[in-house]
Amino acid sequence: MIKTFSYRLRNDPLLNQLAHRVNLIWNFCNDTQKFALKHKKKWPTNFDLINLTSGTSKELHINSQTVQLICDQYYKSRTQSKKPYLRYRGDRSLGWIPFKAQSITELSDGFLFMKQKYHIWKDRELPDEYILKSGSFSQNSMGHWFINITVEIQPKNEYGNGTKSIGIDLGLHTLATCSDGTKIDTIKFYQDNEKKLAKFQRAKKKKQVRNLNKKIQNRRKDYIHKQTTRLVNENAMIVVGDVSCKFSISQNAKSTLNVGWGLFRSLLTYKAIARKCEYIEINERYTTQTCSSCGVIPKSSPRGAKGLEIREWTCDECGIRHDRDVNAAKNILRLGLQSLAEGISEIDVRSKELTS
Which domains does the chain have, with CATH numbers? Predict the structure, then answer.
């Protein structure tokens, strides 16, 4: 299992200078790409960029493997984004310095990189047995530097205490609604501090704005960490709907970004792997409209944008009254069990509604 450990540095000598040199190499890769576009030449690959930057490590006093990783990351980012070129990195860009396993040495209270010691606040120990893969130094918006160590470890034969199977419907009114009726409340971390944040922004107090935004982010992350840990410990199987964040952001950006669906699913995924809990994401189309009791889509079910205000409804076919979110969570669980039985990871609800 691949896992990343992040530690905050007590000291950051030379890191700002190294980050500036990293930006120079990144911008050279961007210039090379633009030159190829202008003169209609073949777009350079990561190997071409590495060859073009060979020897710069001595001139810039930077690790040669770091130069190779910058070229690899530039090519990877440009390919994945499907853009002809990327943004330049400047003084406003957050610092980033990648490195390979051979370039760093672990010490009792930190790490050794390019003959320079970096002391850390070690809030947790690295595993007893691990294989160091790679890592990076990174800077956050507060200007603090962190070292991120990616290691390969053997997963522990550790199981959670739960034996239940639950479906989870993600939403805005509640962060998550479970098929057993329990709900995880949405705490309005951003909205609660919105007036204070606006006051700092009007006064152009950039440092206070960064501090408050970081505080909101940390509170949200801590809350979601606690909830996902509890869910993994209490259940043996978790099924989550693949709710579209992009569509919801276009409709209600503040509420969607506040709840943190992406972070919730990301933390739930790796914790489920570590605790050997079955985790499945399924297509959640029509799960709100389908009756979890009789399996049909009645005319009384909530539909469209107007139906978002309907929180409870009664099925015309069987007469069962449903809580909107609990009903969706039950359908998500049913589809997850079907996908597990059929050996597939996603099911089109529309095609299954008549046979369910």
Answer: 2-152 (no CATH), 157-356 (3.30.420)
